[in-house]
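cron nightly-structures :: item 1 of 1
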Amino acid sequence: MKTIISPSILGGSFSNMENVISDLDKSKAEYIHFDVMDGDFVPNLTFGSKFITDLRFKTKKVFDVHLMIRRVGQFLDNYINAGSNIITFHNEIDENISELIYKIKDNNIKVGIAIKPKTPWEDIKEYLHTIDQVIIMTVEPGFGGQSFMNNQIKKIQNLSNFVKKNKLNINIEVDGGINFETGKLCIDAGANILVAGSFLFNQKNLISATNELNDFFN
């Protein structure tokens, strides 16, 4: 199975974001990952839907939008209209998960559910037949640059085994502390999408770093 690289712009300079998007547009990455944080669900604040809207016309890459926010239903229309190709929200919110899933799908947008490190994958088992991807967090959501949590590998394996056994068409995406070494652990465990932020943006050249990571797994 092909590995998809989804660079997280959280690691880039927001004052130079047009150039960041331009570089990623020239790279082999298929996705661009947007970490939306509200300062409530997670202890940090990043950007909202207008930021995504303003960047949408800069590239045709898949916008992989990860909502780390508390009130998904209240703001969902904004992210649907912003040009998101995939919208993933967290299972840990206090909302009707099924309603959110079908609202996203009714707008011809792919939908995913994300789970924090302490959340068992079984908590989302009932939704797996209706969604397109799962994001397994391998760091605590809220900040970039954290170390990879190796204890999440078993979760990836167990979810992957369930997906294969039940012949589900679901992508397994891993977000947090991804580099060559940790990425290989995740791919070997059954993941097929890797979110990489700090690792890529700490390299001298974003385009070549992204291409090197892509080529390493493909």
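cron nightly-structures :: done
The domain at 4-217 is CATH 3.20.20.70 (TIM Barrel).
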